[in-house]
Amino acid sequence: MRMVDIIERKRMSIENTQEEIQYVINGYVDGSIPDYQVSAWLMAIYFQGMTDKEAFYLTEAMLYSGDIIDLSKIKGVKVDKHSTGGVGDKTTLVLGPLIASLGAKLAKLSGRGLGHTGGTLDKMESVPGLSIDIPEEQFIDQVNKINIAVAGQTKKLVPADKLLYALRDVTGTVPSIPLIASSIMSKKLASGADVICLDVKIGDGAFMKTIDDAKKLSRIMVSIGKSFDKKVTAFITNMDQPLGMAVGNRLEIKEVVNTLKGNGPQDLVELCEDIASYMIYYAEEAESLEEAKALAHKQLNNGEAYAKFLEFIKAQGADDIDFDNFIEIEEVVPYLAKESGYIKEIKALNIGLASMKLGGGRETKDDDIDPNVGIVLNKKVGDYVKKGDTLLNIYRNRQITKDIVALLDDAYILVSEVVGIPRTILKIID
Ligand code: URA
């Protein structure tokens, strides 16, 4: 087999065979096929797309490039979730304890944030004492005992994705739907759960810009999951504004705590209750989706989901924390509306980048994070604001630079006509 023939076939829109795709992945991982040839193949895929069969074979080849986590020692149905990357997205940390408190089992390997989106691991590590480096045996033991564990992905999980993603990043081939689908699904399948819920974000700062693209990506991922006998549901969700009010690691943990105590922002609560209802139903802890949703709602308001959160973070080493006093900040600076009107959009990308530039996120993967800083919105889409009202508060430990102010100045779209409150979940595909 010759790599150049495989590239040419893809360039001419002729389907690559299972053997050809396997050959590319094996050769790239073992170093026998060079970057420039794989780059050309990726670009051909970017333009010609992939059939469902090709996307399945690519996922399979990537999946078997490294370790596959064996969760068979965990009794019952194991559930997992993945988000394509949101600003203010603390869903896992609400959803996990919530479903665990109802008997469903969340065994999740998570990633770090880069750029404008935050990662679950960074939010967890902002809690003093909490560790995400837990050995596999302890991970399994913890899920068996308390129904929830969240750990960092090891280097050995889908090494093909690490290599391909780095190459896609520098060859302009990240936004290819079949490449995104196989990247996400290979990692989810290698993580070993039976049920996978996917949160596919659309809007400003998301990979998917339109509902049609989000539907295509969701359909491919659901179909790949089903071919591996997994139950997969994709939730297409709106990212025309950050999720919830808080952006920044400890600020988001505080919002998680408030949400688990029944005082969460409406969009975050809606998303968590809806995804939770599918997880609880698939985990056979409820007879119908309606019953599961009612149970989820109850747990957020009776203290049980919060009690499970405390048990979860303690199991992973967290200190006893006074969540009302754990944010160490030099100054909170209000950012005021420059005109009056209804908020039509709060550009999530701008808010995420502003928080990153305050020190709350990483520009490159070796940057350190200040867990205390970030942004807390005071108003959301649909709200009316008067000139001079506080739109958001900036939690800062370093100077607020001109580029941060420019990002915020450009973040809001205000209009004179009334704007309805947007739906968070736009479509569910399963
Ligand atoms: N998230 C992933 O894990 N992979 C992609 O390709 C895009 C988003």
**Averaging pLDDT over every residue, what do you get?**
94
Structural class designation = alpha/beta
Reported for the largest beta sheet, the result is: 6 strands, mixed
Form type = globular
CATH architecture of the largest domain: 3-Layer(aba) Sandwich
The end-to-end span amounts to 38 Å
Count of DSSP strands: 13
User: What's the domain count?
Assistant: 3
Beta-strand content: 15-25%
CATH superfamily of the largest domain: Nucleoside phosphorylase/phosphoribosyltransferase catalytic domain
**SSE order in H/E notation?**
HHHHEHEHHEHHEHEEHHHHEEHEEEHEE
List of distinct ligands in this structure = uracil
Radius of gyration: 22 Å
Fraction of residues in H or I helices: 40-55%
Distinct helical segment count: 16
Named CATH topology of the largest domain: Pyrimidine Nucleoside Phosphorylase, Chain A, domain 2
Name the poorly predicted regions.
none
Major beta sheet, strand line-up: 3-2-1-4-5-13
**CATH uppermost class of the largest domain:** Alpha Beta
